[in-house]
């Protein structure tokens, strides 16, 4: 940059009253305390991350920019594919994601693909930096890849070494060979979405998928809906109640999607995240051997809640990616779009607008990283809060970008309208944001009701 250049309403960099460049003239010690490199904000945060997590972040960015970004619009606009088919570009991405380790990084090498340097940190921490990069590139492709980790989470959280070795490792090996084996996570039922994400609703909910004991295992019957990747998955972690019992009997079954009686009846044509199929699945006497009960009989409710606790922080990271994509798009627009003979960026009300968008995005990221760093034992109160706040604020940032681009924002090629459609869904899945607010209070109520307990927030 030429030091004489400046935005309207600001001093040029070489002006005696301008910050930063003037620091260079201070004495040595004072300079060491005041001067700073002119990094962009992403690089600034990169430098603050542990080296191994930062390295994964840079790799994820490269992957997203090289493979996801160039096809995001094409995949989004493609006609809704028939059940079981996925756009060829999305298929290529899945294969490459598998080869590069993006489908197996919840376990350290040699079990999974997580670099050893990242192993001391909660896997969610690494997941958050990766998910942000992917969702910045494309919400749908991000979900296509990320839903697999959601599906695998009950296997990991079962804490059973033999489950991990027998079920998860073959999946990881297959992905790394470039033959993606996706796992879907199936809790939602036509009559129970929020009800399986919040205790009060579950108490009265009638289970929609029921497991009947039979010789050597269980027969599953019923229907699940909105299951991300359920149309392409080879296996699924399916939550079902035991016959004649209520939601407290919920058990996690690791289901082979090619088993007789497993049928994907349709995928939804949804407003956003179109690269990822939301499948309705019908179970008709699907046999699941006893050995594929995950985490023990009647422990499904706990495993489901633990999975959601772990996954709601990465949903916050998705929101950061959307807000960042919207902000970056708005900044680019403001730098290039001319109004009254000068670029929009020179108008101070536009500068105020952009400053707020950047601050909102970085505030979300701070919240997400704070929770992700403590992600070994994610707690419902914190993760629900992180999810609803980040996704709500991300939509607000997208609206600000829309305001700035005005009619240009409604045009597909300017990206904002796609981000807008994608971000809206993140406020619905993993529990609507209303339910996440209730989940936060549910977890907090012991303190709220104890009048002798001082409340700190
Ligand atoms: C893109 C996408 C991907 C998804 N992926 C998956 C997946 O991979 N696996 C999976 O299992 N599910 C998945 N889902 C389902 C998702 O988790 C549910 O849609 C979500 O939890 C909301 O449930 P519901 O749609 O059944 O709404 P409902 O539970 O029917 O809620 C309807 C309305 O009632 C409100 N409400 C409900 N209970 C209460 C209450 N007690 N007090 C006040 N208000 C209440 C809700 O906030 C909402 O406004 C996905 C959904 C989408 C959109």
Which descriptors apply to this entry?
457 residues; Butyryl-CoA Dehydrogenase, subunit A, domain 3; eight-stranded mixed sheet; Butyryl-Coa Dehydrogenase, subunit A, domain 1; binds flavin-adenine dinucleotide; alpha+beta; Butyryl-CoA Dehydrogenase, subunit A, domain 2; 3 domains
How would you describe this structure to a colleague?
By secondary structure, the chain is an alpha+beta fold. The chain folds into 3 domains: 42-181, Butyryl-Coa Dehydrogenase, subunit A, domain 1 (Orthogonal Bundle); 185-299, Butyryl-CoA Dehydrogenase, subunit A, domain 2 (Beta Barrel); 302-449, Butyryl-CoA Dehydrogenase, subunit A, domain 3. Helices cover 49% and strands 13% of the residues. It has helices at 28-34, 41-48, 51-68, 72-77, 88-99, 123-137, 139-157, 161-176, 199-204, 300-336, 348-373, 380-405, 416-426, 433-449, and strands at 183-186, 209-214, 217-228, 235-242, 251-256, 262-267, 278-289, 293-294, 338-339, 342-343. The strands form 2 sheets. Strands 1, 2, 3, 4, 5, 6, 7 and 8 form an 8-stranded mixed sheet that branches. It has a two-stranded antiparallel ribbon with strand order 9-10. Strand 9 and strand 10 form a beta hairpin. Helix 3 (51-68) runs parallel beside helix 6 (123-137). The longest helix is centred in the last third of the chain and has 37 residues, at 300-336. It is globular and about 85 Å long. The mean pLDDT is 94. Residues 147, 185-188, 193-194, 197, 200-201, 226-228, 273, 278, 425, 428-432, 434-435, 438 line the site of flavin-adenine dinucleotide.
């Amino acid at each position: 940059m030429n030091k004489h250049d400046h935005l309207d309403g600001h001093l040029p960099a070489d002006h005696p009253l301008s910050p930063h460049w003037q620091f260079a003239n201070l004495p040595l010690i004072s300079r060491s305390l005041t001067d700073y490199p002119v990094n962009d904000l992403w690089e600034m945060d990169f430098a603050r991350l542990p080296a191994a997590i930062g390295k994964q972040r840079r790799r994820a960015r490269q992957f997203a920019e090289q493979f996801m970004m160039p096809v995001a619009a094409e995949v989004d606009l493609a006609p809704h594919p028939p059940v079981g088919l996925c756009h060829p570009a999305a298929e290529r991405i899945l294969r490459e994601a598998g080869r590069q380790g993006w489908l197996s990084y919840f376990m350290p090498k040699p079990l999974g693909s997580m670099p050893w340097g990242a192993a001391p940190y909660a896997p969610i921490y690494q997941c958050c930096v990766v998910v942000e990069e992917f969702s910045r590139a494309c919400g749908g492709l991000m979900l296509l890849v990320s839903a697999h980790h959601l599906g695998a989470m009950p296997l990991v959280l079962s804490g059973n070494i033999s489950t991990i070795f027998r079920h998860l490792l073959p999946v990881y090996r297959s992905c790394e060979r470039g033959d993606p084996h996706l796992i879907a996570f199936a809790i939602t039922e036509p009559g129970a979405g929020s009800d399986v994400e919040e205790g009060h609703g579950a108490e009265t909910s009638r289970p929609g998928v029921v497991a009947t004991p039979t010789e050597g295992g269980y027969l599953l019957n019923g229907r699940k809906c909105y299951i991300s990747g359920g149309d392409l998955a080879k296996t699924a972690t399916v939550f079902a109640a035991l016959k004649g019992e209520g939601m407290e009997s919920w058990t996690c079954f690791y289901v082979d999607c090619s088993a007789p009686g497993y049928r994907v009846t349709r995928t939804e044509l949804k407003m956003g995240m179109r690269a990822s199929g939301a499948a309705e699945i019908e179970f008709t006497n699907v046999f699941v051997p006893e050995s594929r009960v995950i985490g023990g009989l009647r422990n499904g409710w706990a495993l489901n809640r633990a999975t959601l606790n772990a996954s709601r922080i990465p949903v916050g990271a998705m929101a950061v990616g959307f807000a960042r994509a919207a902000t970056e798009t708005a900044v680019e627009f403001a730098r290039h779009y001319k109004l009254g003979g000068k670029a929009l960026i020179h108008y101070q009300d536009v500068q105020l607008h952009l400053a707020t968008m950047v601050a909102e995005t970085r505030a979300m990221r701070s919240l997400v990283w704070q929770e992700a760093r403590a992600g070994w034992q994610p707690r419902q109160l914190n993760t629900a809060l992180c999810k609803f706040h980040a996704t709500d604020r991300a939509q607000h940032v997208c609206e600000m970008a829309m305001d700035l681009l005005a009619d240009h924002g409604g045009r597909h090629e300017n990206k904002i309208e796609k981000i807008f459609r994608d971000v809206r869904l993140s406020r619905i899945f993993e529990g609507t944001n209303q339910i996440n607010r209730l989940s936060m209070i549910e977890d907090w109520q012991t303190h709220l009701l104890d009048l002798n307990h001082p409340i700190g927030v």
